[in-house]
Amino acid sequence: MGSNKIEYGFLKEIGLGSENLGGYINGKWKASGPVISTVNPSNNQTIAKVTEVSLEDYEEGLSACSEAAKIWKSVPAPKRGEIVRQIGDALRAKLDDLGSIVSLEMGKILPEGIGEVQEIIDMCDYAVGLSRQLNGSIIPSERPNHMMLEVWNPLGIVGVITAFNFPCAVLGWNACIALVCGNCVVWKGAPTTPLVTIAVTKLIAEVLEKNNLPGAIFTSLCGGAEIGQAIAKDSRIHLVSFTGSSKVGMSVQKTVSERFGKCLLELSGNNAIIVMDDADIGLAVRSILFAAVGTAGQRCTTCRRLFLHESIYQTVLDQLTGVYKQVKVGDPLEKGTLVGPLHSRVSKEKFAKGISLIKSQGGKILVGGSTIESDGNFVQPTIVEISPSAPVVKEELFGPVLYVMKFQTLEEAIELNNSVPQGLSSSIFTEKPGNIFTWIGPNGSDCGIVNVNIPTNGAEIGGAFGGEKATGGGREAGSDSWKQYMRRSTCTINYGSELPLAQGINFG
User: Fold this and answer.
1) Residue 222 Ramachandran class (φ > 0 left, ψ -120 to 50 alpha, else beta)
2) Segments forming the whole domain that contains residue 196
3) In this structure, are 232 and 303 located in the same domain?
């Protein structure tokens, strides 16, 4: 599985070579840190070499970014929107090539790679409209001849630390909005997907250059944990948006809050689908398949727990095991592949360890359950019958493993859905209005994303994306998420000659 080393033509199309500098600093490409190799997860062969940034490079980047922030926040918001519009167009022109590098370096299938780049393009469109709607409000004042209003201003610099599973879409959710809100952006991409980071940055850099704007408005860094720690500690960075594990997210939050910075966290998910006795079974089975095996189970919104009403338990399970057996696992760039490799050798080892743990806790493997012999990081999509009380069910195993459990009442299913530390996405399949409104109400799902008759994954950008509890509480993309990237000032203006005080206080 996975082809031998071939020259990928699309690399040149997006400005990548066999050796690449991993820092866009003060409008120039430079990097003086360690040289790493980035590998294709389908065969673990080197795609290219990348020089990571050093802490000295980081410092140079940040001081230039601080200077650029003064210029950028003074550009009117609709004009900032015009720059983001041009970034969207630059991405559109290279959509297939960028989708291919996402697929090659991350391991997701090509339609998903292209879909991920499309998501940034959609975010650019969304942000362009938003740039004319960063509206404040006027509040009635209790004092005569006084006017009270809310004004929204840029924070300054926003740090964005993204994960390997969505190596560029998560940047789009944050950066498009941060930029129209008047902030400069410092991006640290995942250490294992540096080519995606470099390719996307090159397009953004060209747009800034063409408009005679300082390149430092967008500073991009390829590097490891020490660069992430530098971002978390840096008081020049007003908001740090971090995507990754709950464990690392907690330490980032601690570091950022110790300096009174703001944090936006998108951490782990352990998402459930509930299938009620009145559900459309065909619709449910198709949805479960996409939710559980899409991106080889490496989405934070992947369905990991499946709760089936006892009366339809066997029917759903039989249909599901049938479709699982037809899933084509293979090279993600090949047509017809539905499941590519896991992202790294470490992920493959964790999968094998996870399966042993599942068996030791009484889990019964119904489908899959093994790694696949090959040079790549391929594993079999797996279905496990297990008790909801098994400790392993409470943890997120980042791969295509689905735990199946049985329930009798909606209340019981909701309790099971809510019984894990994470609270990202959740979904119910039912036709009854009573079930639907209970599910989305105060006694329903405790997740940030609460779906009905659709999978747990594949969120649209128009809604706020994020979750509760150990998922971190952050919200990205649509709705009023833009407010996180700005600071709110309450302004009161006295246009009279008297000084009436609030609450009727008489002072002297």
Assistant:
1) beta
2) 9-267+472-488
3) no
Write out the E strands in 162-212: 184-188
The count of domains in the chain is 2
- Give me the helix-helix angle, 110-130 and 95-106, nearest 10°: 130
Arithmetic mean of pLDDT, 43-50: 97
Active-site residue, from 266, 373, 411, 412: 266
Query: Which pTM value belongs to this model?
Result: 0.97
**E strand spans, 396-475:** 401-407, 422-423, 425-429, 449-452, 464-465, 468-469
Contacts of 40 (CB under 8 A, 6+ apart): 2, 46, 47, 104, 105, 376
Q: Per-residue confidence at 7, pLDDT binned at 50, 70, 90?
A: low
Structure confidence by residue, pLDDT tens digits, 134-182 = 999 999 999 999 999 999 999 999 999 999 999 999 999 999 999 999 9
Res 385: pLDDT = 98
Mean of per-residue pLDDT scores for the chain? 97
- Element spanning 467, H or E: none
Q: What is the CATH number of the domain that holds 444?
A: 3.40.309.10
Give the contacts of 231 (CB within 8 A, at least 6 positions apart).
159, 161, 186, 188, 237, 240
Both 256 and 402 in a single domain? no
Q: Is 266 a catalytic residue?
A: yes
Are residues 258 and 349 located together in one domain of the fold? no
Note the helical H segments in 345-445: 345-360, 410-417, 433-439
